[in-house]
Each structure stands twice: as C-alpha cells, then as structure tokens.
C-alpha cells in the first residue's frame, strides 16, 4: 500500500448500474437495421436531468476507469499556425455500459472578434456488445453539465474538512453551471463569491444559482486577491481572454484550487502541496501555459479516478494547498449521452439516418 492509499483498500469499489441508464437503454438505442439516431441541440434542450443524476453517472464512469474496465486515451488536437481554429477528437470505451464513443470539437474564428467565433461539438456512441451504431448527438449541453459536475466531485474529495466558502472566477458556460453542482456535493458552503466582468454573465450565474438553490445568496467581489485569500475552494472557469490570475501566495493553507479554464496563475500550481488531475496525460498536453521558465510542470501526485474509487486520497491534511486540474474525459460523456439519448428517443425526438445501408 502506498502513502496515498486508504488503509485496507486493495481494489476500487466497483459501481452498480447507473440509476438513469440501465443496460436496456443501450439495447433500445442500438439499431438492428444499421440506422443512426441523430439528436440535435434543439432535441436535447428541454430534457431535464438533476445534478444528482449527473454526479452519479460521472462517478460511475470514473470508478470503472479506475478499475481498468474502461479506456480513455489522450486526445488528438489540430491547430493551424495562424490560430484561426482548433479541433480535437477523443476516443473512449465505457466498460460498464459496453459503449465506444468518439467526441469531436471544432472551434473557428479564434483570431477574430468574439461575436464571430463558432464552436461545434458532437458525440457518437456505438454499442460494443452488439457492434451496432446508436446515436450521434450535439454534445454542448453534455459538456456544460459534465465539467462542473467533475469540479463538484473534486471539491467533495479534495476540499479541506469543514469548507464553508467558495470563489468562482468566470461567468461563461462552465461558470454558470458550477455553483448548483458545488452545493450538491458541499451543501454546507455558506459563502458563495463570484468574480466576473460581464454584467450579463453575472446575471446568468445568479439566475442559475437561484433556479437550483433559491435560498442562497451570491456575493459579487471586485478584489480578486482578497476574495481568493478568504476562500476554501477556488474554481477558475474564466475564458481565455480573462486577465484574472490568482497567484499561489494569495491562497491560504488548506485551499483547494480547481482549474477548469483560466483564472489561476502558474504559481497556484507550482506552490501547491498536492496536485490532482483528472488525467495526467491530458494535463501535460494542455497545461503548457502553466509551465515554469524551463518548460516544466510539477509531478501529479494522483489522478482523480483512483481518488473516487478509494485507492488514493484527495488530500492528506487540512493544511495542504491542493491544486486540481479538471480536463474532460470522454468516458464521462458516455453515461450522460446515453441518459439524454434514452429520454429523447422515448419522446420521439431526433431523426433516424440510414448511414450504413
């Protein structure tokens, strides 16, 4: 047993079937005639799923990955030299549901005004038990739920005991989804701070919080350094153009900082006592802006799936400053995609396309 392991823990606690996505949901989506269900963003827009269901699905996916029953290799990325676009693809297999998935993301106009930028993401699912294709679907909403849910699970496992205050940096898509999930895993948080510069975004974060937790107040802060020094949990979900950058020296002992997008300076990583990553491989490929002057990143102490599985721990002491890197894993998209697809198809939504006949 290593120093990171829980005493007496030899193997991860394997998950039971996800409540929202039984094996039958996979079978009913597998088309015997070779057709593919195509689900648009509009098809998925009105389908409701609770934070608790999302968290349950993702925890199941991460535990299965930690058990060695799933695969999530490194993403592939293509970026032209002029920086006008970026595209990436991730392939993965969920051994729990026996589903293979490909997620593609394409962003265009990154060198121009924000209003002209475009982003498209899609998820395609195949039944690895029958060999049949199932669904191709817009993945934007799945990603908007998956990432803040992983942040909330990181907070549950890595925040210091008795954490009561949280600072959210950023008011974009990921920022808007963070607080409802964070309150689901850390319901004792009684001070919620927000640092943002866009009035419409601030209003959207407030509205999202009110929809899930109408009794909670949101404190908009202007002094980023002071707020970071008072927070037990700091979630950096700002956009690439944000100037917000919390330095490591601003964080008090015991703080958990979670990097989703931007908002943390490299020192927050390099001064941390413990580093947790959803995927060390992805962190080393995508966190190059956090490298030191020699181009180096600190060692990752543990990946997050083994933490959820009970093999390693998120922190060793209440005083540790923990840095967590939240990069997306396609294995977490699979159970959410199945859940949305099952509900959509049951409502008669989407289109069947005979691609293979």
Indicate the topology:
Layout: H1 23-29, E1 36-39, H2 41-45, H3 51-66, E2 76-78, E3 85-94, E4 99-108, E5 118-127, E6 132-138, H4 140-158, E7 165-169, H5 173-185, E8 191-195, H6 199-212, E9 219-220, H7 224-230, E10 233-236, E11 256-259, H8 266-270, E12 274-277, H9 280-286, E13 302-303, H10 304-308, E14 322-325, H11 330-346, E15 351-353
Parallel strand pairs: 1-6, 7-8, 7-10, 8-9, 10-11, 11-14, 12-13, 12-14
Antiparallel strand pairs: 1-15, 2-3, 3-4, 4-5, 5-6
Explain the overall architecture:
The chain is of the alpha/beta class. It contains eleven helices and 15 strands. It has helices spanning 23-29, 41-45, 51-66, 140-158, 173-185, 199-212, 224-230, 266-270, 280-286, 304-308, 330-346; strands spanning 36-39, 76-78, 85-94, 99-108, 118-127, 132-138, 165-169, 191-195, 219-220, 233-236, 256-259, 274-277, 302-303, 322-325, 351-353. The strands form two sheets. Strands 9-8-7-10-11-14-12-13 form an eight-stranded parallel β-sheet, with helices on both faces. Strands 2-3-4-5-6-1-15 form a seven-stranded mixed β-sheet. Residues 5-12 have low confidence and may be disordered.
The biggest beta sheet is recorded as: 8 strands, parallel
Low-confidence stretches: 5-12
Helix residue percentage: 25-40%
Morphology: globular
Mean pLDDT level: 91
Query: What is the C-alpha radius of gyration, as a whole number of Å?
Result: 20 Å
Amount of beta strand: 15-25%
Helix/strand class: alpha/beta
Number of discrete helical segments: 11
Strand order of the largest sheet: 9-8-7-10-11-14-12-13
* Distance between the first and last residues' Cα: 53 Å
Name the helix and strand elements from N-terminus to C-terminus, one letter apiece: HEHHEEEEEHEHEHEHEEHEHEHEHE
Number of strands: 15
Indicate the multimeric state: single chain
């Amino acid at each position: 047993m290593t120093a990171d392991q829980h005493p007496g823990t030899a193997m991860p606690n394997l998950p039971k079937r996800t409540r929202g996505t039984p094996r039958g949901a996979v079978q009913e989506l597998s088309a015997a005639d070779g057709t593919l269900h195509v689900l648009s963003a509009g098809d998925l827009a009105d389908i409701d799923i609770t934070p608790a269901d999302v968290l349950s699905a993702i925890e199941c996916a991460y535990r299965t990955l930690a058990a060695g029953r799933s695969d999530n290799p490194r993403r592939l990325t293509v970026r032209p030299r002029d920086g006008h676009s970026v595209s990436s693809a991730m392939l993965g297999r969920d051994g729990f549901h026996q589903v293979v998935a490909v997620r593609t993301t394409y962003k265009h106009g990154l060198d121009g005004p924000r209003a002209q930028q475009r982003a498209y993401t899609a998820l395609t699912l195949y039944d690895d038990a029958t060999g049949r294709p199932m669904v191709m679907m817009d993945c934007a909403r799945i990603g908007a739920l998956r990432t803040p849910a992983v942040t909330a699970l990181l907070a549950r496992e890595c925040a210091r005991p008795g954490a009561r205050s949280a600072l959210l940096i950023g008011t974009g898509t990921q920022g808007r989804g963070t607080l409802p999930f964070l309150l689901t895993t850390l319901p004792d948080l009684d001070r919620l701070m927000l640092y943002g510069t866009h009035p419409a975004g601030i209003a959207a974060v407030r509205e999202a919080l009110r929809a899930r937790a109408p009794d909670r107040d949101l404190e908009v802060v202007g002094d980023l350094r002071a707020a970071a020094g008072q927070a037990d949990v700091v979630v950096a979900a700002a956009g690439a153009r944000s100037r917000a950058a919390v330095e490591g020296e601003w964080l008090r002992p015991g703080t958990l900082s979670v990097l989703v997008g931007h908002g943390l300076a490299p020192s927050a990583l390099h001064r941390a006592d413990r580093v947790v990553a959803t995927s060390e491989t992805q962190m080393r490929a995508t966190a190059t802006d956090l490298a030191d002057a020699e181009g180096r990143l600190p060692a990752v102490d543990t990946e997050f799936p083994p933490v959820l599985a009970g093999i390693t721990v998120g922190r060793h002491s209440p005083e540790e400053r923990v840095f967590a890197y939240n990069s997306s894993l396609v294995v977490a998209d699979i159970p959410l995609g199945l859940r949305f697809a099952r509900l959509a198809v049951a409502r008669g939504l989407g289109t069947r396309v005979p691609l293979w006949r």
